[in-house]
Every structure is written in C-alpha cells, then in structure tokens.
Amino acid sequence: NYLLGVGRADCTGPVAQVPLMGYANPDQVGGGLLTHLYSRAFIVADLDDSQRVVFVSADIGMVSQRVRLEVLQKLKSKYGDRYRQDNVILSGTHTHSGPGGYFQYTLFWITSKGLIRPSLNAVVNGIVKSIDIAHENMKRGRLFINRGTVENSQINRSPFSYLENPASERSRYSSNTDKEMVMLKMVDEDGEELGLISWFAVHPVSMNNTNHLVNSDNVGYASYLFEQEKNKGMLPGEGSFVAAFASSNLGDVSPNTRGPSCINTGESCDNPQSTCLIGGATMCRAKGPGNDMFESTRIIGQNIYLKAKELYEKASQEITGPVSSAHQWVNMSDVSVELNATHTVKTCKPALGHSFAAGTIDGGGAFNFTQGSVEGDPFWDQIRDQLLGEPSSETIACHKPKPILFSTGEMTRPHPWHPDIVDVQMAAIGSLAIVAVPGEFTTMSGRRLREAVKSEFDSHGTPRMNVVIAGLCNVYTHYITTYEEYQAQRYEAASTIYGPHTLSAYIQLYRGLARAIATETSQDLPRGPEPPLFKIGNLTLLPSLSAERAPVNKTFGDVLQEVRQQYRVGEVAEVTFVGANPRNSAENATEHNFLMVERYSNTSGTWHGVQNDASWDTRFYWTKGSLGRSNVTIEWHIPHGTELGIYRIRYFGHYKKTLSIIRTITVPFEGSSSAFEITIP
C-alpha cells in the first residue's frame, strides 16, 4: 500500500502568434486551438510518508531547464523541502503543436521568437497547480503494473542508422522499434479508480508542421479518450480520473506508418539520405495512416488508448516496496567514460551537425541540407564562421565524424546556446524504476540503457526490476544515439550534442544512480554543479498587444457568417464571429474556454453545454486582419452518437480597448450563433 495523489491542470498558454515548439519551423505559428494542453501529476508516498516521488507528464514539447528551475522554486516556497530536484520528475509528452518560448538557452530562441513569459508562466503554473491538486488529494491506495504490445502505430524513421548497430545485438529484438507499452494503474483502498500512467515510445507528430492549431497530438488524444470514458458526463478537462500517456525512448520512432515518400512525385524516399530526385530532402515526408493529419492523429491515438484500456482492465501484478529517488547534476560536456580497463573516452562541448538542419521525414529542414552528411558544406560553413564564429579544432576532433554546423558549446551571447549542466535522475517505486532522461533516446540507446540499469539492480540484490524510460525530462539536450548510429550522422546523430560517447556517459551515470538506490546510499551521491538561472526579462519578437477594432456597425462577438439551419451527424457546423486576439484571454485567465456547443432542453427551457474548446470535435481558428481587426471561426465536427435536437455555438473572448494614451484595458465579450437543428443522417 501507498499514499497516492493525482491531479490535472491546464497549461495551454497563448494559442495565437506564438511559434509552436517542435519542428523548429518559424512559419508554424499558433492560430487557434484544437484541444487544451494539460499537466498531469502523480504523487506516490510510503505509508509512513517518509519518502515521496512526484511524476509529471505535461502536454508540451519537452521540459526545459527554465521550466524545471522555476517549478522547483515555487514548490520550495510552498512546501519547503518536501518536493526537491531528486524526487520530482517532470516529463514532456513531446507534442509538436504546443506554444514555444519557455527556454533560457539561446538556440531555442531562434525559432520561438525569444523567451515568451506568458508561455513560460502557463507551463510552470500548470505543472505546479497539477502537483498542488495531487498533494491535496492524497489517500491510501494500490498500484498495479502491466505491459503489452502496441501494433500498427510506429515505424523507425532512421532505419539505416539502426542497421549500423551490431548484427548480434539486433538479432535479439524482433523489431527496430520498441512496441511495448508499460502501464501503471492507481486505485484507492476502496478500489475506486484514480488514474494511470502509460509509457510508450512514439513521436507525437501525427499533426505535421503545416498545423497551426494548438493540440496535444496522438498521445493527447489517447489521454482524452481514457479520461472521457472514466469521467462520465463531464466536459473534457473535467473530472477526477487522470490518464497520462508519457513519452519514452522515441528518438527514432515516427507514428507516420505509411513511411516516407516524395510529396511531388509520390515515389518512396526511404533511402539513407531521405532525399528525393527532384526537390531534395525538403520533398521527403512520411504520411500517417489517415487521409489527413487529424484522422492520423485519431487513429494512432486510438490504437494507443485501446491497448492501455486492455492493459488497465487486466492489470493484476501489484507493485509493493519502498519509494526512493536519486539525482545528480552533471556537466555533460566533460564526462570521462571508462569503456573498459584500458580505454577512457570523453564527452564533448555541445555542437549540432549539418544533418540537424535537414530535419526528419516527419518535418523537413530548410534550404538544401540532407540527412547523413558527414562532410560540411563550404557555403554554409563560411556564413556560420562570419555570423557565429568557427568551431575550435578541439570540438571538431571530439565530435568526429560529425561535421559541425553550430558549435553551440562555444557560443555564449547573449546567453549560452546550449546547456552544459544536465539532470540525471531515477525514481524507484517498489519494483518499478523510472529512468528520467533529458532528451530523446533512440530505440537501441533506450534498450542499452534499460539493460544496464536492470543489471546494476540485479547485481546489488534487487532483481526483477521493471525499468521504464521517461523521455524529455528536466532539461532538453536533443537526441542520444548509440555510438554506431552516430557514425551514420542522420538527424538524430547530428543532434546528439555531447558527441559520440554521449550514450556511454549516460549509461555510466544511470548505473551509478541505480546502484545508489539499490544500496540505499542516494543521499551520499555528489549533488554536482548547480545549473544556472539566467536573468532574462521578457525578451521576445512577439508583436505587442494593441487596441483592437470591430468593423463599422459591428461589435465584438457579432456573427459575420452564420450557421446553416440544419445539419446531419457527421457534418461540420461552422460560424464566423468578429473576433479579438486570443492572447488577451490567455493573459487574463489561466484556463480560458473560448467556446461552448450548447443543446436546448425543451423540458427546462434552458441551454446546456455539451462540448467546450478542449473537445477534439471542435476547432477554434483566429485570423488576423488589418487595422486591428480579426475574425474567429469555430467548427464543430458533429460526431456520431450526437443527440438530435436544437444547438448553438457560443464564443468567449477578450479585446483590448484604449482608455487614454497610457492606459488600455481588457474587456470580456461573447457571441452566439443562431440556433440550428441536428437531424437524422
């Protein structure tokens, strides 16, 4: 038995004008909302409450060091030493459709227009609030673990790199991706269901880089389906049951199961360079199983949900035993790794290779970069040398065979471009070990890490540990490939920023954490060098929020394009309003709801909400016009099983109004469509 608490809180942030984080495409800027983003928190404590572990999975691209440090500061001021860097794990789901701008290292400012306070605050406050809710609802309960195989939901997007791994190692595995889902089920002592955490390795990139609607992608859809089922009769985002679908070693794993083809010719581009004869690498794209990205997201998300549901219902293996955690800060640009008795190698100062700029088959890069380049390009190298300075010979030698595009570890203006100080962290709950990794481990890297940790536990008298990797934790350090994959220098290898021995360094470090947990000596681990918290104001290229106008003879919330009078199930009801910048709402309220679909009840003569903006069936689009004007279009994709009857769509917003030269205020408003009828299909 344990003390358990679960909590969920909104962490969506601004849904307009902020670049989305993930594809590093500066044109991919938020322009509305498909579904909210949530932070989901789980607290597990010993019955005597001597030890606690917090696991948070947030619907964001990755946890940045800035987010983590600010969350830990807030937790310390609220709870003293109860929640600390060693027992709080923060993991990102890796959706590529959430707002960016919550980073302190310069590299991430380039594509996300700097440090965006409203974005950072939404993530930090959402995470803290979800932990608060879990903290306030602790009760006695039980944990169960189950595992199973998820089919038809992933492909390896760098299969040529995977093939660089030794044949003897590959022959031990039936697939070039990890298909196993590990699921942790939580119930209270009366058997009431509290929630679950699922770990499964897949990139949440079913929504591609042409998408402008903020959403949580395939794993977010799985959470939505599970929570909707368990929180019956509640609107999305409401209810006490919390279902987290967390990331794992997804580095080379894509959900776009139809594989890569050239968008111009339709021919396959499944080659070592992922390049097309006509148009090069930018034309090579992987497609999901659906007809469009929305359908692909649902198909993959539903596959994951259905497996989790089956594992949840059948989970019978109980987790028992002590709760513990171990953590160190490590300077990853300077780790000595003992490969064997005679050989010691070192990690490098961070640097990105040329193939980093090529992107992947899930979202290509710019210009004419291709994956798998082990030569530099004199044209780009010259531009780099003039703008950013050339890499030192030491860094070039350390990273071989990577041709360095950005020597980020040697770039310090206005702040360092990449982290040196990285968190390594592990938590154990009975026979479950959660390995919190600061980036994206590839399939084989993850297998080696899990195996090393397991054998360390075995050799210190703690056999049969269930070792699970939680990805995108605590600080973002891009990718971690195996030494062999590194030689091929595809995107993942070019983005292995601490050089060819990065994985070996992590394996050595996590072995140390496992040993400390198994021998109960975590408190004796050296803390390591504390990471910096840079003093940064609101440093951003985001346009400032200025006064807005409605068209002549119209006011905010007026309908510009009305709904039809009748729709059938399966059709799309659509209405356009005189709108205002959604950022006004995000900066006014933490959990703003932009829309409601309401049904008219004849018996009571009142309207009742049936869907909100967190529903996957509604889409909220914001379009900026000129002269301070903008429009909002709301779509409701009427799902099968919708009750027939009379409906309407309402819109809630805020506009900026000028009172005087120095003072503007934010004014709330709302609008509503006409009533419409839903009839038999």
UniProtKB/TrEMBL annotation:
Q: What class of enzyme is it?
A: hydrolase
Q: Where is the Neutral/alkaline non-lysosomal ceramidase C-terminal domain?
A: 511-678
Under which EC number(s) is this enzyme classified? Answer: 3.5.1.23
| Keywords from the named record | Hydrolase, Lipid metabolism, Metal-binding, Sphingolipid metabolism, Zinc
One GO cellular-component annotation of the UniProt record comes to: plasma membrane
Cofactor note from UniProt? Binds 1 zinc ion per subunit.
Its recorded name reads Neutral ceramidase
Cite the source lineage: Eukaryota, Metazoa, Chordata, Craniata, Vertebrata
